[in-house]
What we know:
Helices cover 36% and strands 19% of the residues. The radius of gyration is 18 Å and the shape is globular. The protein is built from ten helices and eleven strands. The protein has helices spanning 62-73, 93-96, 98-108, 126-129, 146-152, 159-171, 190-197, 215-226, 231-238, 241-257; strands at residues 2-6, 12-14, 22-24, 27-28, 55-59, 80-82, 113-117, 135-140, 175-183, 203-208, 262-266. It starts with a strand and ends with a strand. The strands form two sheets. Strands 2-3-6-7-8-9-10-11 form an eight-stranded mixed beta sheet. The chain is an alpha/beta fold. α1 packs parallel to α3 and α8 (215-226) runs antiparallel to α9 (231-238).
Amino acid sequence: xxxxxxxxxxxxxxxxxxxxxxxxxxxxxxxxxxxxxxxxxxxxxxxxxxxxxxxxxxxxxxxxxxxxxxxxxxxxxxxxxxxxxxxxxxxxxxxxxxxxxxxxxxxxxxxxxxxxxxxxxxxxxxxxxxxxxxxxxxxxxxxxxxxxxxxxxxxxxxxxxxxxxxxxxxxxxxxxxxxxxxxxxxxxxxxxxxxxxxxxxxxxxxxxxxxxxxxxxxxxxxxxxxxxxxxxxxxxxxxxxxxxxxxxxxxxxxxxxxxxxxxxxxxx
Length: 268
């Protein structure tokens, strides 16, 4: 892992996502190493030749930048998403604490914040998150099986730790959700996930697997290494529109069964 400290020119950027006005990414890159990571497109904006997942740039001046920038737009901000193209609680956050420092600055203005992560490290900041008038935290849950997690998300927190993080956040009266995505054919067992998370979340998101931009090719290679007998079926289902209609119906039915609002369901 190549780690470099950099000085950013800006930290608060306009968002193209419907759920946020602005985004904050304290890091460039991520060392969770998720095979399916959609943020790989960011590499073309960096000077790195290394594969995505092998480098992280640390925006060490992020807290100072946000302190200045947020004051100039605070009356225009309805929501800020922390970690749109990085995981703000990846392992390096434990050392650098940039996300925590950014939260401290946002809390001064009580800016509405939303965070999505795969790390239980977020529980470290419950003391801050619980003080916001409007704060939403999501944990990505793609499976309940640790072997599967290690195939697709090798350096992320274990599933049990993520579910326990949801429990602690929810118990602290923080608005929580499970982001169930991407959904993997053969590997994502929706009924098991809903059974484990329903007591700890206020809502759920879903996301169909996006097989564009060579994602399917990378997933094939990973499955070939661990589960070679399942590669063909996985690929067939991933390309099957009828299969995804069934998955979406199952998702909605389970949400109804557990009385969980669906905040969104991404299709590609």
